[in-house]
From TrEMBL, chains A, B:
Enzyme class: oxidoreductase
Enzyme Commission number, as recorded: 1.3.3.3
One GO biological process term: protoporphyrinogen IX biosynthetic process
Family, per entry: Belongs to the aerobic coproporphyrinogen-III oxidase family.
Designated name of the protein: coproporphyrinogen oxidase
Keyword DNA damage listed: no
Gene3D superfamilies noted in UniProt: Coproporphyrinogen III oxidase, aerobic
One GO term describing the cellular component: cytoplasm
Pfam families: Coprogen_oxidas
One Gene Ontology term of the molecular function aspect: coproporphyrinogen oxidase activity
Pathway(s) it belongs to: Porphyrin-containing compound metabolism; protoporphyrin-IX biosynthesis; protoporphyrinogen-IX from coproporphyrinogen-III (O2 route): step 1/1
């Protein structure tokens, strides 16, 4: 059943959607852990909005799981306006070179304990640039979900991709193939020539279909989260593992940190935004990570198998 | 005794200096560990030079210690030229908009195991921009050393700063105060409003005194490394520590990672440079790091004492 109500403005529907999905996702994840999420509400200075972080740390299954929503607005920093103009040349600033924005979104990163259980990230967001009279000047949606295993399980990757393809197909059969490649390109650790994991979907600056359809698409993708991920965790969370496998997971988490801090646009935008909430932005970091000098897995090993896939992305469905 | 020979070109002297100091520093550090450094030579593609990494991992005292020299040259990437022009407006590119560089330097990061023993970083480097005929168009030196404790020991900070002041004073009494503030400003984790540690010295684009004097200054600072650091490690490496103290160290290492990946110019330059050696650039990373959601030390605790100093840098000498 949809939580969307087309009689309301888009931003209100999106806010209702992310609030509902945050609770639903947390509840779903809690079915696989004995520990519960803790809520933590926060506000941005100067009436700039706020958000709610739900965090589960040191669980039985999940080492660190964060599900965050934010609804923020206010003047956009000048540096951000300049960057944004690269993709939105039509943004009109006022006589002081300023512009006001509204943004809301849900973001989530789950790092399980077991090295055979994959990390999952998702983020669905809606962005508006406003005129001085408060009317919407331009808007777009962004989003995506991706899977980062330390060990490759082909069936897991296929399942994850299949469910995201199914979520997108009703909105255009061209979307999944486009968003799949976008994801491989976006989550690329360029200096390593590796993708972060086995990918998923990613899109940004999206306003090709009407806003109500975009909302429905966001909801459809958000609905894919639990069925695409929970079965993988259920299958992997109690698998036996060795110290060496745990160490490999820690090395892969180091790569996760490298991607987030060096490349991720959302993280970089957040760290540069005055009064942003650092703890919610860096909630995506794993609890622990390792860097070993010059570590290279043995040829033919399970570790090398994963690396191969990150260097040559595969079409899973 | 100086290893400099003023009858040789500056670049050859600098190369001889960093080669000699790399060995000396490694030998000095080995006196406090049962494990030895391992050498690892590497070359950059297309005759672009190379380097030698010395790494000690999983020692008794040092968790991860890296001492790296590099001597690299070749065409400068266009993005790097643009950035460099901010500080060196007089750089003349050739008709293709290209320019050749030569750079050599020694960089070092030492992460000890004991949370009471501080991390130390240093980097001394020399940079030349060349004309098409191979003559030097412009040159500068850069360098610095800084101390990153997890627990504040005032005497350690004073000792470290005092020896670096002593190393600089013969070259101008104004240098230490200037480089001390530069260091506090440079090693700043802006999004946390924290410095990385208790600072030290930092300078860049330095050519205010003649090149031979700059070489002597680099040597003098490099000579301060062992006496400024070894006594601190000798004092702290066998101190008893709790699990909580180890965790705090891991959280501080997370901050170290944040600084290196988000702000450090050398790391960013390296990651963007084609054919650069990633493992040598990221040798500076700690072996392990932790991110806990919303961790804030108790008021009045030893942990809070350190944070206070990182938020309000102190004049140690």
């Amino acid at each position: 059943m949809s939580v969307l109500n087309p009689s309301l403005p888009v931003r209100e529907q999106m806010e209702a959607l992310i609030r509902a999905k945050q609770l639903e996702i947390c509840k779903g994840l809690e079915t696989l852990d004995t520990k519960k999420f803790k809520a933590d509400e926060w506000t941005r200075g100067n009436n700039g909005g706020g958000g709610k972080s739900m965090v589960l740390q040191d669980g039985e299954t999940f080492e660190k799981a964060g599900v965050n929503i934010s609804v923020v607005h206010g003047p956009l920093p000048h540096a951000a306006i300049e960057k944004m103009k690269n993709d939105h040349k039509d943004i009109k600033v006022d006589q002081n070179g300023e512009v006001t924005f509204f943004a809301c979104g849900l973001s989530m990163v789950i790092h399980p304990i077991n090295p055979h259980a994959p990390t999952m990230h998702l983020n669905y967001r809606y962005f508006e640039i406003l005129n001085n009279d408060g009317s919407v000047q331009t808007w777009w949606f962004g989003g995506g979900a991706d899977l980062t295993p330390s060990y490759l399980y082909i069936d897991d990757a296929k399942h994850f991709h299949k469910l995201h393809k199914d979520a997108l197909d009703p909105f255009g059969l061209e979307l999944y193939p486009e968003f799949k490649i976008w994801c491989d390109n976006y989550f690329k650790i360029t200096h390593r020539n590796e993708t972060r994991g086995v990918g998923g979907i990613f899109y940004d600056d999206f306003n090709k279909i009407d806003a109500q359809k975009c909302l429905e698409m966001s909801e459809s993708c958000l609905n894919a989260m639990l069925p695409s991920y929970l079965p993988l965790i259920a299958k992997r969370k109690d698998m036996p593992f060795t110290e060496k496998e745990k160490e490999w997971q820690q090395i892969r988490r180091g790569r996760y940190v490298e991607f987030n801090l060096v490349y991720d646009r959302g993280t970089k935008f957040g760290l540069q935004t005055p009064n942003s909430r650092i703890e919610s932005i860096l909630m995506s970091m794993p609890k622990t990570a390792t860097w070993l000098y010059n570590h290279e897995p043995e040829e033919g090993s399970r570790e090398a198998e994963l690396l191969k896939v990150t260097r040559n992305p595969i079409n899973w469905v």
